[in-house]
Amino acid sequence: MNRPGDWNCRTCKHMNFQRRESCQRCGEPRGATDLYSGGGGGGGASFGGRGSSSFGTFTTGPDVRPGDWYCTVANCGAHNFASRSSCFKCGASKEDSITGGGFDADMPRMRGFGFGGGGGGVGGGGSSTHPGWKSGDWLCSRSGCNEHNFANRMECYRCNAPRDSNTARSPYQS
To answer: Can you tell me which residues the record assigns to a coiled coil (predicted)?
Structure first.
């Protein structure tokens, strides 16, 4: 749950506790202009999606829009805005990601691993193209979350939504 003072990383959009001075996930230092991401107890406030900060990035969570894309080069998996021609995290070009099995925001629940493009996709022999994924791991189906969760979790570690066996699929399930 979000609490007063929690903040979203400008770089990877991970929600961090107020006490953190740098992002738990990527190590990016907390900026003075980071906006509070939650509403405290009532479910969270929205600041209008992307574009309201001086960094031109999302101000709340993973706000995926049509045309946005996920980098699949070298198992990067970073979410990139539609306007980007290269991945903000690894620098790979959008074209390299697309030819390597990339995809856009029309399928947000499949983030973090490609389909087709060399046999590494969903159901591709039991191995995920995203490092750290294991059999039974699942993606949260709550709109705007889509977070990777380990197989033993019965609720999403990020938003506490219950595991939904129909929509939160593992990359190993067909």
So the answer is: none
Tell me which DSSP letter residue 76 carries: -
**Could you give the CA distance from residue 84 to residue 27 in angstroms, rounded to a whole number?**
22
- The pLDDT tens digits for 44-88 are 333 333 333 333 333 334 567 788 877 877 667 778 888 888 888
Range of the domain at 1: 1-60
Residue 43, domain member (yes or no): yes
**Number of independent structural domains in the chain:** 1
CB atoms within 10 A of CB 162: 12
Q: Which residue has the tokens 């738990």?
A: 24
Cβ-based burial of 35 (10 A; exposed 0-12, middle 13-18, buried ≥19): middle
User: In terms of residues, how long is the chain?
Assistant: 174
> What is the value of pTM for the model shown?
0.28
With beta carbons less than 8 A apart as the criterion, state whether 24 and 16 touch. Answer: yes
Does residue 74 sit within a domain? no
